[in-house]
Amino acid sequence: MELCDRNISELAEMLRRGDVSSKEITESVFARISEKEDTINAYITTTYDSAMKQADMADKRFRKGGDIPLLNGIPIAVKDIICTKGIPTTCGSKILSDFVPTYNATAVEKLLGDGAVIVGKANMDEFGMGSSTENSVAGPTRNPLNTECVAGGSSGGSAAAVAAGEAIGAVGTDTGGSIRQPAAYCGVVGIKPTYGRVSRYGLISYASSLDQIGAIGKTVRDCAVLMDSMAGHDPLDTTSAQVKKPGFLNSLNKEIQGLRIGLPKEYFVEGLDPNIKERIETAVSLLEEKGAHVVEISLPHASYAVSSYYLIATAEASSNLARYDGVKYGYRSEAVSDAVTMYETTRRIGFGREVKRRIMLGSYVLSAGYYDAYYLKAQKARTLIKEDFDRAFEKVDAIVTPVSPCLPFKLGEKLEDPLRMYLVDIYTVSLNLSGLPGMSVNCGTVEGLPVGMQIIGRAFDEATVFQVGHAFEESTGSK
Q1: Which one, 16, 22, 305, 355, has least CB within 10 Å?
Q2: How far is C-alpha 413 from the geometric centre of its chain's CA atoms?
Q3: Catalytic residue positions?
Q4: Contact 154/129 with Cβ under 8 angstroms?
Q5: Residues in contact with 452: Cβ distance below 8 Å, sequence separation at least 6, in sequence order
Q6: In this structure, are residues 409 and 185 in contact, taking their beta carbons and an 8 Å threshold?
Q7: Which residues pair with 78 in a beta bridge?
Q8: What is the largest CA-CA distance in the chain?
Q9: Using CA atoms, how far apart are residues 464 and 466, in angstroms rounded to an integer?
């Protein structure tokens, strides 16, 4: 097995034994990037020179000895919507094609503080707007397991990099499923933590009340290691929660005997691929064998989730993206005669089709004549969805659902039908609306394509999510 195909825990142990160096691991990752990247297109920018310097520093820490973090010397990919000092951060958009931040996002700063090696900026749907990573100025990312299929989105580059061995772990962002869905499609593990658990400082906003930074790894344990590094209160982020951070790794070995797991009846109805339903049911039976109690629950307002999400997300996007006007930074159209034309031309050329569609929709729902009819109703529905989860968690400790109603689809299959594309997020957007943590864990394949199982926890109870996910991996021998 190549070094780049091993997981964080395996490599951390090998590094501590002195069997391998960080430089060797990082070279293995870049060799895989050279081999696969022309096909997969997981990265917008790679950072060989700075990564090798970071790897050298990590090796020096091992030689010095002492208490060394588990991430020291581990190559990590960072989604290209998260600021990295001195490294281009484009959001997959022409309008930010030349933007180089002067600071690191807090999550990146924490990873670097623990000795992680940043190997590049992962491809993504422009500004996180998409479910397939086909809406990128850098071109689409392909699924490493079947290159005719999408890798999911918007963190498709992050998930594909981990699945292909082009990174050992990755950082993504999740606004409506953008970590969990690509993780499911690429057969890896991805967690969206509770809103406020990880600092959003340095995350370029799409929809501020929904965006959350999270982790993608080859195993549940990998994600726990990444989350242990990134999580915690940050005074630089006003949405960062002042709650005690548990040790997520410590939760992995707890038994799930007696744990109550809810299956929402609204998620297992017509529209869900029968093969996916079968894999989820098999996975749940394995959890039962380990002592969990399965309870049917109801989330009666689940049918409003997609419409509410796309009204709220686009409204927030139309406001957040107003700053890209060609004046302060980013792309500017020069072939114009006056300021108004410059604004219009810059945004028309600088933004892609999907981004312009969502800005227009968001501006519409926020307009004076439609605010009450659409945006206000969506916020009321959001409250009802959150209350459904609150009631459900009075009866259960965790909830299990599918991640996606369908298997990874072919490149180009849904591009011309935005509504079909939006429905891919039907099982994931509720967690962003309610701020809850959720994890995608691979639970089998159908015709060679992976199926993701979503594990949902109470607010700030990622520990139980990790506990259930790890128990399932143990039951399948895939830990």
Answers
A1: 16
A2: 22
A3: 79, 154, 178
A4: yes
A5: 180, 181, 183, 184, 185, 402, 403, 404, 440, 441, 442, 443
A6: no
A7: 121, 171
A8: 71
A9: 5
Place of tokens 């951070």: 245
Percentage of the residues of the chain whose pLDDT score is greater than 70: 100
pLDDT at 307 over 90: yes
Query: What CA–CA distance (Å, rounded) separates 393 from 295?
Result: 11
In the chain, what percentage of residues exceed pLDDT 90? 94
32's tokens: 């895989």
Cis before residue 21, ω within 30 degrees of 0?
A: no
The number of beta carbons lying within 10 Å of the beta carbon of residue 99 is 17
Tens of pLDDT, residue by residue over 221-275, are 999 999 999 999 999 999 999 999 899 999 998 999 999 999 999 999 989 999 9
